[in-house]
Each structure stands twice: as C-alpha cells, then as structure tokens.
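=== RUN LOG ===
request id: a7f3
mode: sequence -> structure
chains: 1
length: 285
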Amino acid sequence: MNTSDMEQNSMANEVDLLALIVIARRHLRIFVATALLVTVIGITVSAFLSGQYGYSVAVQLGGLRDEKNSLILIEDPQTVMAELQTSIIPQVLGDYGQKYPDLAKRAPQIEVKVPLGSEAVVITTEGKANQEKMIVDILDSIARAFDDRQGVLLHQRVDTLRSLLIDTIAKSELDLTQLKKSRDAIVAKGDMTSKYLTLLLINDEISKLQDHLFILRQQLQVGLVSDVIYSHAFGTAQRSARPSGPGLAVTSLLSLLAGLFCGFLAALAVHLLDLARTRAAGGQA
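=== RESULT ===
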C-alpha cells in the first residue's frame, strides 16, 4: 500500500467518523436517551456488585503419615470437594437459614478447591463488608462440619488398623511360641550335635520374630497416634484486605463508554430506518 492509498483510507475514516457524529446530532434525543439509559444501568449494576470482598478459610486434610513422612489422605481431593459441595455446604446453609433470613434471597456462592500438591482444602466466597459476620459464621461452620466428618473417618481407619495390628501381633506371638517349643524339643532329646544347624536357624528366627514383635507393640502403643494427622481449620475465616474487581470508578467509566457506543448505534439504526422509509416512499411515487 502506497502513501496515497494510506491518505485516502485516513480521510475515509475521518469522513465516516464525522458522518456518525452528524447522524448522532440529527437524532440527538435517541442518542442521549440510549447513552444515559445504558450508562445508568451500568453504574447501577457496578454499584451493586462493587465492594465485594473475598472470604476464605483453609482446612487441613486428615490422613496418616507413612514412613517417608508423606500424608496418605483419608479421602482423595475429588471426594472431599464433592462431599463439601453436595452435602456439607447445603446442610450448613440450610441450618443458618433461620438465623440469617437474607440467605433465602441470595445465598453466597461458595467454592471449594484443593490446590495441586497441597494438604489443605480452601473454601472461598464473596460478599459485602456488612455481611462479614454472616459469611465468617457460615465458613467456620462448614470447616467445623468438615472436621467432624474427617474425624469420624480417621477414627474408623485407626480402629481398623489397630485391629489388624493386634491380629498380626497375636499371630506373631503364636509363631514365636511354636518356634520355642520346637527348639525346646530338640534340646530335650539331647540331639544337639546333629541338629546344630537346625538350632541355629530356629534361634535366628526367634530373634527376628522377637524384634518384629517389639516394633509392632511399640507401634500399637504410640505409633498409630503419632502418625495420625487430624483435620483442622487454619484459624477462622478471613476477609480480604481489599474488595475484588476493578472498583466503582473504573466500572463507571466503562459504563459511560458503553453508553456512548450504544447511543451511536441507536442513532445509526434510526437513521438507516429513516433512509429505508424514504427510499420506499420514493419508489412508490
């Protein structure tokens, strides 16, 4: 494209802009009414939505630590989020319906997520500053209900593991008793020389089994308790320091620009309709 073409395009754009301004002046009432209407609607919606603060609470997920200090969760993250969204959160909102009648009109949209690689679930929502008490109460209640649920599951898991451990200890003790009887029988027969290798093997098995039993008994006494990570909230729900969103001033400016744009479109639409009517009338004549 040469310089002459660029100048022609620039002039065409200027003409189009001037023509649009002329059209807006011809249909000034339509332009002003539409611009004001859209601007007022935008500012009203912005005022209603502005001042929204973020509220959040983080809750430790319950589980058991393995020998590598990795947390084996009592429930996988997807199950945790589904349980909160479909059961715990609706239940808490229902319980608070009488205390906070506003919930029936507009319940807060509560979101749940487990950040990748995290051992905590984060519960968030948004609300006005004057709703802080209500929202904090609701989020803290959700966290407590989740803690209780996780606690029940953990106790069930610990009881199951304890029962398995007790059964393993009982079987190991029975095996130890049988080995000792076999060793005592060889010694009682006085056949120590010919059974020397057998005695060594039996004594070695007895020693290993005794060490194993010692570890199992220690684990039964303290290991299960120390390896359990109970669910708990990291403090109470907190409100963000600043409101979310671009703010009322920015949204008001955007509403004004949108109003002007819609005003030009409305004026142009009326102008085109007038042209169509004029041509139709001329054709009939």
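=== NOTES ===
The CA atoms of residues 10 and 203 lie 101 Å apart.
Confidence is low (pLDDT under 50) at residues 1-15.
=== END ===
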